[in-house]
Amino acid sequence: MTALGIIGIILAFALLMYMIMKGFNIYLTVFVCTLVVAVTSQMNIYDAYKVHFMTGFTTFFKNNYLIFLTGTLMAKAMDITGAAKSIAKTIIKVMGTEWAFISVPVACGVLCYGGVSAFVCSFAVFPIALQVFRAADLPRRGIPGALCFGCSTFAMIAPGAVQIHNNVPATELGTSYMAGAVNGFMACGFMLVAGIIYLHFWLSKAKKNGEHFIAKEGDDFGEEGDSHLPNFVVSLLPLVITIVLVNVKFNGVAIAPVEAGVLAGAVSAVVLMIKYINPKELPKHFADGAAMALLSITNTCAVNGFGGVASNSPVFGDIISAMVNLPGPKLLGLVIGTTVIAGICGSASGGLGIAVPILGPVYTQLGIAPSIVHRVMALSSSALDSLPHNGYIVTVTNGLCRETHKDSYGLTFALTVIIPLIGSLIGVALFTLFPNLP
Fold first, then answer.
1. What's the predicted TM-score (pTM) here?
2. What residue intervals traverse the membrane (predicted)?
3. Cβ(273)–Cβ(299) under 8 Å?
4. How far is 71 from 164, CA to CA, in rounded Å?
């Protein structure tokens, strides 16, 4: 039964990836994959759905709905006020078009670190990236990689980042968003520097091969005057408010819980930049944000429900034992387990939602500090999650940028899979050598 159960879990994960890549409904996908695990593991099928699936689903919803809601409202506020675009435009203007390969991911990273969702960051920066890539005559197919690198790697999983990727381990392990700060910042710093170097290399090589910027039908290069956008400093204030409220502590306690801090950022954005929006449309924007948050979290909950079934399979303990007992640093198994689960889910947050409750306690019981477990899992969640079936990757590549995976995913893969994976291993080395750093 053990061999059949292990084969069943592997088959279910492969089927999950295949069905998601083929565009099947996420709920149908997880229901089918749950059935595969239940049958091959000889689990009671009714209990698999009623008990294990729904426990995984509802637990993730309970722990994370408020951060999804407030995060979506924050992103909505930064979007409708023009603050996100103002920040992006200013950074790119200061750095100049000659440094487009740096300014685009940096602009995305600033927004992402402050709590703006990857989707909103990409949509805000894309029109500006289009202009600077054209001005510098850089190949257009490099834009998806630059956007995805800035939004879904170094800034998303850095210590202090107001993102779900810090919230999930913090909630489960009782840690802070700044857990593993020194080593975490060094690992993320490597991702940033290595990514910029590789992006520069890729763009230079493409230009040497005769590639130029070639506009696509529908590209809009109209310059939006600064009068239509809020001041850069004012635009930045909501992000600063959020980061301070969530990360600054008095007597060991943060000024505000993360949900309250993010909500304060959203409210401050509306209050400070009210003249750039129509107040009468705020209820509609709130309703849209709430609906988006509900859709986003239930999709992730569905994947976590499947994870709940897989983790209760009779053979799952054997799989965990194999990862924990890998030769080398203890944390190596944690990296492999987290990044593989995130890759199968096609989601860093979804992968963490499954991996942290399962692997977190195993490694803390081995004597590893919760702060180290938190940061290593956050770092490793940002590698295989960016495989071609990732919803964000598909949206940015095919939808927003109107490029094909064939033309542009090679760069995206290097920037969002290979480099974060190396960064995760660097994190393992740092935490193994210097476990007592704050």
1. 0.77
2. 6-21, 26-45, 65-87, 99-130, 142-162, 182-203, 260-277, 289-310, 331-356, 413-434
3. no
4. 9
